[in-house]
Automatic annotation (TrEMBL):
Source organism per UniProt: Planococcus maitriensis
Annotated protein name in UniProt: Nucleoside triphosphate/diphosphate phosphatase
InterPro entries the record matches: DUF402, FomD-like_sf, Ntdp-like, SA1684
Broad class of enzyme this protein falls into: hydrolase
NCBIfam families: PRK13662.1 (NF010183)
Taxonomic lineage from the root: Bacteria, Bacillati, Bacillota, Bacilli, Bacillales
Reactions it catalyzes: a ribonucleoside 5'-triphosphate + H2O = a ribonucleoside 5'-diphosphate + phosphate + H(+); a ribonucleoside 5'-diphosphate + H2O = a ribonucleoside 5'-phosphate + phosphate + H(+)
Binding site for Mg(2+) 2: 105, 107, 120, 123
Domain of life: Bacteria
Active site per UniProt: 23 (proton donor)
Gene3D superfamilies per the UniProt record, alphabetical: FomD-like
Length: 181
């Protein structure tokens, strides 16, 4: 599998189980790219919804994707702390300059104090019926919700104390070099 290079700008494509595009983030700077992990960053990037609507992200974000876990984590850097938006999703694939995954509706929102809320269970149930998610997908997704919550409680991965500092510093390095090129 191809991997994106550090400093490269890629798109992020979110799909639904039926293969339809859900959302596209136009520009994300790769901070780390391996076969298993892609860490990227963006701010004020254009996002296009499946219905054609567009909007700009509001704050800088560090994005964490894993090829073995059924979730991805968006760390939003706000004035009052780091908020995390965790999508329960398929593991990512990368090809043709785009990171791609299937969004399975369930989300976990994590607050700066590390409290969290599971969101969109109704939407998940609706889409499960409409798109015919197999039972095995249901089991995998809920197992990964549990794994994600365990990461939050243990401060693993993007929830670790120094994760934001390390990757924000790396993003600032790439932004500075892009401005001076």
């Amino acid at each position: 599998m191809a991997v994106p290079a550090e400093g490269e700008t890629i798109q992020i494509h979110s799909y639904k189980h039926n293969g339809r595009i859900h959302r596209v983030w136009q520009e994300t700077t790769v901070l780390k790219g391996t076969n298993n992990i892609v860490i990227g960053a963006n701010e004020r990037t254009l996002v296009r919804e499946s219905d054609g609507r567009t909007w700009l992200t509001r704050e800088p974000s560090i994005c964490y994707f894993h090829a073995e876990h059924w979730f991805n984590i968006i760390c939003m850097l706000r004035d009052d702390g780091v908020y995390y938006y965790c999508n329960i999703s398929s593991p990512f694939v990368y090809n043709n300059g785009s990171l791609k995954y299937i969004d399975y509706d369930l989300d976990v929102k994590v607050f700066p104090d590390m409290s969290y809320t599971l969101l969109d269970e109704d939407e998940f149930e609706d889409h499960k019926r409409q798109m015919g998610y197999p039972e095995v997908i249901d089991q995998i997704l809920y197992r990964n919700v549990d794994k994600l919550i365990s990461w939050i409680k243990q401060r693993r991965g993007p929830f670790a104390q120094d994760f934001i500092e390390v990757w924000t510093s790396r993003y600032e390095f790439h932004k500075h070099n892009r401005i001076h090129d």
